[in-house]
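Task: fold both queries, return tokens.
Query 1:
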Amino acid sequence: MSMTNQREEPAGLSASMLSLDEVRQVVGDSNITRADVDAGQQGENVRRNVSLFRPRDVRAVIRPGSVQEIQAIVRIFHGNNPPAGLHAISTGRNWGLGSAEPATDDVVTVDLGRMNSVRRVDCDAGYAVIEPGVTQLCLAEALDGTNRMLNVTASSGHTSVIGNALERGVGLRRQRTEDLLGLEIVLPDGELARVGWWPEQTKRTAANPYGLGPSLLHLFTQSNLGIVAAAVVSLLPRPESQRVLRLKFPCARRCRRAVF
């Protein structure tokens, strides 16, 4: 067989495939899809491209279920140093902000949809600690019957709260970035760090996302400096009542000419 027509992958991409073998041991067979082995089996929400950008070459999709698994994945890729990068998505349904497509080719997608825990809700203090897979619908249901509500967007209930906020989405009450109080990030070497404000277990402190000195919080909005594993989001007071006013205007029967 002639080898001239075969595509030879760079050595770094072969290293990426070896990294995926290690990752499979971390997340399990059912939570990793390799493009070279499981073609056509990737979830619709991961590869659905409704933003009409050019589809990218995604080498694999990994679905971790915990912060520890994210750290292990990052350390594996960091240790082997392949040119294929990691592209993190939340639920893949923030479609107005680029779908789930990465910005470049030859990447491995880290789908955080399995990380859907509402870790903590404090309605008195007005915040919730959530993971990237928590959707608007999920958090809204968790707040049902309380005196707090989420700053929702006009998008689907199945979009990620964190994913939309990190992409600077627009809520119905205010910019979604204003909802971010603190972030838990896995850095490129696998270290876990927290920036902004985070609730303490031993004492109650006021929610202050800026802290002392330069604020690092927004280094991680619309950036690739780390993978956000959780966030503290502020909750709005729920109004006692709400009314919708509808206005209807009759159509003009004839157009008036402008006089100059």
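Query 1 returned. Query 2:
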Amino acid sequence: MTRFRQVLAVRGMTPLLGIALLARAAITADAIALTMYVVLALDMSYAAAGAVAASLTAGVALGGPLLGRMIDRRGLRTVLLVTIVPQLVFWLAVPALPYVVLLVASFAAGLLMVPVQPVTRQAIAAMTTAEQRRAAFALESVMGELSYMAGPAAVILFAAQASPGVVAWGVGAAIVAGGVGIALLNPPLRAEEEADGEAADRPGRREWLGTRMIAVLTMGFGVAMLLSGVDLAIIATLEEAGQVSWAAVVVAVFGVTSVAGGLVYGALSRPVATWLLLGLLGLVTIPAGLADDWPWLSVAVIGAGLLTAPTLSTVSDAVSRLAPSGVRGEATGLQSSAQSAGFALGAPVVGVAIDVSGPAGGFAAAGLAGLLAALTGYLLSRRSPASSRVSEPSAPAR
């Protein structure tokens, strides 16, 4: 745990991770909050609710690189102001919006979502040394898992006690509070030596968006697609067994083991290549489809859980190392967009597999998506090593 203590001892790191956890928990639950509002308050179908959630997700995916580029050019506080105000207006207005207006406004809200996750990753890259960075990104991935476990559960719990409109206000308040907190903290997004040197000039996109960066973004897309598909396959398995009420237990086991895996990986003395972790994650996901009830399924997802946070952390680490500091905001925005696209595509693809071959087919489709992304990432990262700025960021030093 020495590595983690060193990271948390970095000035500003602990409050940054704490604020990010609050905001990310709300952002993780925003689509669920809108879904419950459409279904319960507007009394419309789940298909209509899904369209609103998809509109929000599409906005987030498109807005990531744009906001990242704006951070690189205009600075953090300018972008936070541009995003916090629209979030405040949108979430306050949600209970008063008719469905069609809500559908359009959700896209705009996604486009201008407070960029908590990309900013946190940029700040970690700027605030830590090369030796600390892997442990720092492991902690960031653990924070992501905790937010995933806490955010949606809190929204569902409070929705049973309060109106969907009030729940939407609460989600919006947490997002705004997170943005304000980061603005007050104003973490550095470039190291001191970068601010004086490399960051002074913004390199052209062709100089940094090469095959190695595309490989990393592809693997980020793949792991998100896998995780989205696993969530759906878990629900399908338990629905077939008549045990849907136990889904929360299985998801909790998955989340806890992911946290444990992230902590173990961050404490290791040597890194593991992203493509290898993702390939292993895909392999251990496929046999989870053999489980046919909640106790066995809880056991079956442990392997995938242990590899999830380490895989996510290596993707973030790789992006931070491959991107020059002058474009790191745009690069982390692209990473968020790739993962948002993966989450959006994973559920329908795996859903088709479940309809065709049952829940086991869902786990197989999710695992194969991870394997395909890992293979693609491996081939791309080895395609033109001489043209890359740095060596493969998640591979052991040679």
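Both queries returned. Flag for query 2: The chain has two domains: 1-189, 200-383.
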